[in-house]
Design brief:
Helices cover 31% and strands 31% of the residues. By secondary structure, the chain is of the alpha/beta class. The chain folds into two domains: 5-232 and 469-492, P-loop containing nucleotide triphosphate hydrolases (Rossmann fold, 3-Layer(aba) Sandwich); 253-455, Rossmann fold, CATH 3.40.50.880. The strands form six sheets. A six-stranded parallel beta sheet has the order 2-9-1-10-11-12, sandwiched between helices. A six-stranded mixed beta sheet has the order 15-13-16-18-26-25. Strands 19, 20, 21, 22, 23 and 24 form a six-stranded mixed beta sheet that branches. Helix 1 runs parallel beside helix 2 (59-68), helix 1 crosses helix 13 and helix 5 (173-182) runs parallel beside helix 7 (204-218). The radius of gyration is 23 Å and the shape is globular.
């Protein structure tokens, strides 16, 4: 096999588009005949995925593997940090829980953690021709330079050239790009081979003086200016994306998702965007008004977020909502909150031993010491129909009670099982299965139920996977037309006709 060639996408700040630019480059390399894989050494993310082997990784890396046309593995994201509280994160190494650490503890641990990064990269580089590495946040965080395993430390470790991306939609992109370079060492600046400006709206001609200034000032090339992509159905990685998601327009159905302080896996609800649903993330009970359904999502700390929810007055608001026959749906931690209580005897999440739940479902949850991570297949009865479904479980809770199950899980990580999942009581539903709304037939039935409650006609069936693939294809084509991909391949040392 040819020598593996790395390239690294870094950016001036979070949410500048590193993840989707990485996905686009992987798709374009695949289309040019290269075996390419994603790699993010250290990822701090609210959204995660489970590989076929039952290992937990960042959702962005799972999607990037999909873009590359390969199966996701834990080597693509050897270290995953999942915030559980103030300055504390659950540390996942090679897809399994390693422990919980404070920010200071993890900073001290990074020197030891480097070996896990190297092991994963070496396995990937032995299998693939190209590794597209994604950075994290900004490489100019001078307080985090020691034992860096997220940005320039990784580029130096694997001798990867760097493309620096900036988000022009926020304003100040030239200051961000020039300022980032100024804060790098001379060796690090030399490693940066060019810039990509992302999320541009307007007349490219008006941008030309700024591009000329940037190239003259830095002596580095602008490799492309990527227009703002309105059809993005690609998964977001952190809560920054929720700050700008308020849609405008007239909608037949409104779904309100409670934006818990430690919300996780909010990509569960992306399929609703493809359906033209008014999907709103809410933080106060008053915002429930006008919703046809309320969803309580997953969380990295069920007890803390349950207490927050009740202190905010959501308990009474949801009780009134339920009494009107409206739909309440809980996923994972949200399902746990719907029960009578959540117990934490090992103090995994809290110093409290127990927290009273909403008591909408006759069950109680105990948080155990070991995390369950499964890809699952299940069957379920909903609104008079039977469905097959797939998804994944990521939780440390065990829920028991006298419940009508939401689904029956028949397979976990490829092995046959018989497990009752979740619960149903009237118009209240709960499940441990993340990705449940990715299942087209079930999602259609769920939306049909909401339409029916308003006297509206049923909707035509759509495929979320097909729509996301279409969005990825269009995004790849846009990047291909906007960025000098041949120049990037030359930077990597790849022959244009290889």
């Amino acid at each position: 096999m040819k020598k593996c060639r790395p390239i690294m996408i870094q950016s001036t700040c979070s949410h500048a588009g590193k993840s989707v630019l990485t996905a686009a480059l992987l798709r374009l390399l695949r289309d040019r005949g290269f075996r390419a894989a994603p790699f993010k050494a250290q990822n701090m993310a609210l959204n995660s995925a489970v590989t076929r082997s039952g290992h937990e990784i960042g959702r962005a890396q799972a999607f990037q593997a999909e873009a590359a046309g390969i199966e996701a593995t834990f080597d693509m994201n050897p270290i995953l940090l999942k915030p559980t509280g103030d300055a504390v994160s659950q540390v996942i190494i090679h897809g399994k829980v390693f422990g919980s650490m404070s920010a200071r503890e993890y900073h001290s641990f990074k020197k030891e953690a480097k070996r896990f990064v190297v092991e994963s990269y070496e396995r990937l580089s032995a299998e693939y021709e190209v590794i597209v590495i994604e950075g994290a946040g900004s490489p100019a965080e001078v307080n985090l330079r020691e034992n860096d395993i997220a940005n320039m430390g990784v580029a130096e470790m694997f001798d990867a050239p760097v493309i620096l991306a900036g988000d022009i939609d926020r304003g100040g992109v030239f200051a961000h790009l020039v300022g980032t370079l100024e804060l790098l060492s001379q060796a690090e600046r030399e490693r940066v081979k060019g810039f990509i400006i992302n999320k541009f709206r307007g007349d490219i001609g008006l941008l030309k003086p700024g591009l000329e200034f940037l190239e003259a000032r830095t002596k580095k090339s602008v490799l492309g200016v990527v227009p703002y992509f309105k059809e993005m159905l690609l998964p977001d990685e952190d809560g920054v994306a929720l700050d700008s998601n308020e849609p405008a327009g007239v909608y037949a159905v409104t779904i309100a998702v409670i934006r818990l302080p430690r919300i996780s896996n909010f990509t569960d609800f992306d399929p609703f965007r493809a359906e033209g649903v008014n999907l709103r993330y809410i933080e106060s009970p008053a915002e429930i008004e006008g919703a046809d359904a309320v969803i309580i999502p997953g969380t990295k700390n069920t007890i803390s977020d349950l207490k927050w929810l009740k202190d905010r007055g959501f308990g009474e608001a949801l009780r009134s909502f339920r009494e009107r026959g409206c739909v309440i749906f809980g996923v994972c931690g949200g399902f746990q909150m719907l029960g009578r209580e959540v117990n934490d005897p090992f103090h995994i999440e809290s110093s409290k031993a127990s927290e009273a739940g909403l008591a909408f479902l006759d069950c109680a949850t105990t948080i155990l010491e070991h995390k369950k991570t499964f890809n699952v297949r299940a069957s379920l009865d909903f609104d008079g129909k039977r469905f097959d479904a797939s998804g994944y479980e990521i939780h440390m809770g065990e829920t028991k009670g006298r419940l009508k199950p939401f689904s029956r899980i028949s397979e976990r990580n490829g092995e046959g099982v018989e497990v009752l999942d979740g619960g149903v009581e009237g118009a209240v539903f709960g499940t441990y299965i993340h990705g449940i709304f990715d299942n087209d037939a079930f999602r259609l039935s769920f939306l049909d139920m909401l339409h029916g409650k308003k006297g509206l006609s049923a909707r035509a069936e759509t495929s979320f996977a097909a729509k996301r693939e279409d969005a990825l294809t269009k995004w790849g084509a846009l990047v291909d037309a906007s960025v000098d991909i041949d120049a990037i391949m030359k930077i990597m040392g790849l022959g244009l006709n290889a």
